[in-house]
Write a structure and sequence with these properties.
- Helices cover about 45% and strands about 25% of the residues.
- It has a four-stranded antiparallel beta sheet with strand order 1-8-3-6. Strands 2-7-4-5 form a four-stranded antiparallel beta sheet. The chain has a four-stranded antiparallel beta sheet with strand order 9-10-12-11, with helices on one face.
- A hairpin with a 5-residue loop joins β9 and β10 (about 160).
- It has eight helices and twelve strands.
- By secondary structure, it is of the alpha+beta class.
- About 30% of the residues are buried.
- It has helices at about 5-20, 75-80, 100-110, 110-135, 140-150, 165-175, 180-190, 205-210; strands at about 20-25, 30, 40-45, 50-55, 60-65, 70, 85-90, 90-100, 150-155, 160, 195, 200-205.
Length: about 210
Amino acid sequence: MSGDPNLRHEALDTLRARGRLKRFSQRQTILGRGEPGAFLGIIESGAVRISVFNAEGRELALALLGPQDVFGEVAVLDGFDRTADAIAVGKADVTVVSAADVHSLMRQDHAVSAFFVKILCQRLRGSNAHAEAHALGSLSGRLALQLLNLGHEDENGMLIVNELPSQSELARLVGCSRESINRQFRSWERAGKVLFGEKSLKVPDPIDFQETAV
């Protein structure tokens, strides 16, 4: 999450103090669509995919979250049922904080309440960008948007994705086949747009990458 890193760290530490650490196995459902918002989760290690499933069981991945990300907060805050599943991609360690504790901390601690305002604003911006990319964008544009969201910039302005999701995971996120992801990656690599490492990816010029991935 962008914004004040001190606010983020303070709020997360406060929430962790009220939570308990749980380990989830690969493909284990952490929270399910239609369930009440009894808790939220803070990812300590591993990754969590936010997905919905249709009547035939086909999965549509909405987001892939990593360490320090928070999930399940919307149902906790508004009191309505979950609208998506949260599934551990591999083994994942998650700090679980009850809804009662979250509401108590929001009343007591300005940093926690301000943190959730920022999270909700970020979710709204992300949803708008995601909808626009899927409705109007090409595969390269949708994939570039996912990579830009997953990565961080180093001191030289290079975008780095340290834990690159598998091509199958990326295919779920952008709504295409794994083979299409593979072809796009090879095209970018030949053009020098991306550099691959072991389970990582680097984008030397993120601005050019974003502008040309249309």
